[in-house]
Amino acid sequence: QVQLVESGGGLVQAGGSLRLSCAASRSSFSINAMGWSRQAPGKQRELVATITRGGTTNYADSVKGRFTISRDNAKNTVYLQMDSLKPEDTAVYYCRVQLPSALIYWGQGTQVTVSS
Length: 116
Description:
Helices cover 0% and strands 51% of the residues.
């Protein structure tokens, strides 16, 4: 079992920045990939960014060059730095972690709203 606590969402104007954080209840050294997904109203949840235990990152095409994912294994925390935000980035953002067993755990979600 893994509990995930997210923070950092909010309201920002287009072009602005936000930083999301997600703290895991167990050592991130026992977690494979950490990442973020998002779900906008009326749309399917989409994977935004992931980072492996070794630091390899992967991004959705829609956020490449604007978002940066990082993790601090000592703090069991994953971050998502979001720059040059667009109204279409508005969504609930969910932290996700995948264990070596392939089980995936989700955070409770944090709202990000980008006004035009």
